[in-house]
Amino acid sequence: MKSYSAASDDVIRTIQRVREQHHSPDLDGVTIAALFIFDLEATEPVLTHQGYPAQAVTRITPTRDRALGIADAVVVIDRSNWLTLSARKRDALIDHELMHLERVLDEETELSLTDAVDRPKLRIRRHDRRLGWFDAVAQRHGDASPEVRQAKQMIAETGQLYFDFERPEARAA
Ligand SMILES: [Zn+2]
Prior knowledge:
Layout: E1 3-6, H1 9-22, E2 32-38, E3 48-49, E4 52-53, E5 56-60, H2 63-67, E6 73-78, H3 79-82, H4 87-99, E7 101-103, E8 122-124, H5 135-141, H6 146-158, H7 168-172
Parallel strand pairs: 2-6
Antiparallel strand pairs: 1-2, 3-4, 5-6, 7-8
Helix pairs in contact: 1-4
The structure holds zinc ion.
């Protein structure tokens, strides 16, 4: 059975550090809580997002629950996965989750908006990239497949950001 517990102190400290490093001033004043989810008997991933396994999921707390004093956003973390992550991977995962939180600003004044209980309005920031690939389609259609075309476009736009292929100068040496 799925269960929840308060996230450990290292999660809280990681959130604190990463938000100061990378999400200030955007998330200043936003309260963020964290929960572990776990299932001691499960063999399948305990956390999914839109049908795919996820290491963590971030949710914006509805106004009604904020009125009860619940944090403005809650990061739910797969505990068994978290325990296997290095410090660098933990930082990166938390950074990813915090990226999903975007403050809603007034379009004209650019001041941050608040909800009916005077908490900061947030929205979920979507990923820059969304991959939905079938290897078989890439194999059957090669350069004409949406898969390969998207991969090539991504390389054209981001260079080696995501792919660790050899640099030409390294090959010459
Ligand atoms: Zn994400």
